[in-house]
Structures are given as C-alpha cells and as structure tokens.
Write a structure and sequence with these properties.
Elements (H helix, E strand, L loop, with lengths): L5 E4 L6 E3 L1 H8 L7 H7 L6 H6 L5 H11 L6 H9 L2 E3 L1 H10 L4 E6 L3 H6 L12 E4 H4 L6 H11 L6 E5 L2 H9 L3 E4 L3 H10 L5
Parallel strand pairs: 1-4, 1-6, 4-5, 6-7
Antiparallel strand pairs: 2-3
Helix pairs in contact: 1-5
Length: 203
C-alpha cells in the first residue's frame, strides 16, 4: 500500500460546522418573509448559491440575486455579514490539523464562495497550516465533479493513492474513492481517527 503523504480536508462539516439558518435569520428583518419562508422559497431552492460557489456569478451579483428573490431592503455590507456569520469551529478537527502539520502535507478542498472564503475559511486559526487550497469558485468546479479533485491533486503534486481525504458528504467521498483517494466520510472524531489509522496515517 502506498504510504500516505498528504491529508486533504473538506471545510464545512469537517473543520467548521455551518448553519444556513443563521444567514436567513440575519436577512429576515429586511424581508417581508419569515425565516421558514426564506428557507423554503428563496435561499435553499434557488440556483444563485450554486452559481456563486461555482464562480459563475460575482459577490455583487449574488447579493443582488438574493435581494431580488427575497424582496430584501438591505445594504451590501449587512448582507455580507449575515451571509458569512454562519461558521463555528470543530475543535477536535483543529487539534488534529495541528497534530498532522509537519508530518504530512495538508490540503484544503472546499465547495465555497468568495465571501465565505474571505470572511470565513481564511480567518480560522488553522488556515495557515494548509500547503494547498482548492476552492470551487476559483476552479469553477463543484464536488463531486472530477475537475476540482484534479486541481487539488495537481497542487499537491501527488498521486491520489498517496492522499487521505476527509469529507462529510457521501457522494463527495465516493467521487474521491473513484479517483483512488483514501476517502473517509466524517461522522465523529473517534471514527475519523480510526479510519486514518486504518490507512496508515499516524494520529
């Protein structure tokens, strides 16, 4: 078995939890709709968020699209604050990243948007420990599509077999496995440690 030389982390649900209802609660005061109405009819069902995370529309275009769909009367900065104030750290993963740093090359692979990266991902304490960063809005590809994985591996300069990959979404894990990554679905910290040890990562 090829020795593991890099560990690739997803962000949302692995490094930090996120709660989209915090965003909806933040914009609801500027809308005639309730949070539940926003969740059902505006943010979660429209394609602007997907286009934004794929880099097909800009931050301004996303702001205007959501504002139009939700009948918002909100300034751009207030909208941005509500949109980015959704993350909370998973402390056990922060500790794991610090433990692995130095022994393994660390990569970040995330479906995310420009604002979530600038005001969320990039601000976490462990972000500087990542050698490579692959972001969907930059590469214009979303997991589980292959190009975003290819970008991550190209930046690492390693074959898939030399990389462990952690994600909380099963279809993203399946796509990683299809490429030869030692892909692990994140459920609990204890289960993650066991899976990492099982593929030879020293934790």
């Amino acid at each position: 078995m090829t020795d593991i030389r890099a560990v690739i982390f997803d962000f949302g649900g692995v490094i930090c939890n996120f709660d989209l209802r915090l965003f909806l609660s933040g914009i609801a005061p500027y809308s005639p709709h309730t949070v539940d109405e926003l969740a059902a009819g505006v943010h979660l069902s429209m394609d602007a968020a997907r286009k934004y995370e794929t880099g097909l529309i800009s931050s301004d275009e996303f702001y205007h699209a959501v504002s139009l769909n939700a009948d918002l009367k909100i300034k751009r900065e207030e909208f941005r604050k509500a949109y980015t104030n959704i993350f909370s750290p998973i402390d056990t993963t922060f500790s794991l990243i610090r433990q692995l740093h130095g022994a393994y090359t660390l990569g970040l692979l995330s479906n995310t948007s420009e604002w979530h990266f600038q005001y969320g991902i990039r601000t976490v304490q462990v972000f500087p420990l990542f050698t490579t960063v692959t972001l969907s809005f930059e590469v214009k590809s979303l997991k589980p599509d292959r190009p975003i994985y290819d970008d991550a591996l190209a930046k690492l300069g390693l074959p898939a077999e030399a990389c462990a990959y952690i994600d909380d979404v099963q279809e993203n894990v399946d796509a990683g496995r299809a490429l030869g990554l030692h892909a692990i679905r994140y459920t609990t910290h204890e289960a993650l440690l066991a899976e990492l040890q099982g593929c030879g990562v020293r934790v």
